[in-house]
Amino acid sequence: MKKEFKRMWFVMVVTIILISVFISGVYESLPPVIQLVLSKLLLVTAGVIAAHILRKFLFPPIVWTDDNNWQLTVAVVAFYMIIIYCFAMGG
């Protein structure tokens, strides 16, 4: 568990900062373009966290040096891309 927090610390910090920007009310004082970028960034970081948690429950650990297990690697990468894309599109 500690290893997973160490791996995802940057995404978690960015997510916490973005949530605090939305809660504090700073969001409304920013230009619309920056608001759009921040809202999309929040959705993407939430998608990364959700995809990582779901992957840990649904897929076995990947040995990246094993060339015989490329299907699992492709499935996991596609899983990450689909989850993050769905979050980025707003649902």
On the 0 to 100 scale, the average pLDDT is 88
What is the share of helical residues? over 70%
Q: Quick one: overall form? A: elongated
Question: What does the radius of gyration come to?
Answer: 16 Å
**Percent of residues in beta strands?**
under 5%
Number of strands: 0
What structural class results from the helix and strand content? mainly alpha
> Termini separation (Å)?
28 Å
Largest sheet properties? none
The residue ranges in which pLDDT falls below 50 over 5 or more consecutive positions are none
Query: What is the chain-wise order of helices and strands?
Result: HHH
Number of helices: 3
Characterization of this structure:
With 91 residues, the chain is mostly helical. 76% of the residues lie in helices and 0% in strands. It has helices at 2-24, 32-58, 70-88. The radius of gyration is 16 Å and the shape is elongated.
List the helices and strands and how they pair.
Blueprint: H1 2-24, H2 32-58, H3 70-88
Keywords:
mainly alpha; 91 residues; elongated
Short description:
Helices cover 76% and strands 0% of the residues. It has helices spanning 2-24, 32-58, 70-88.
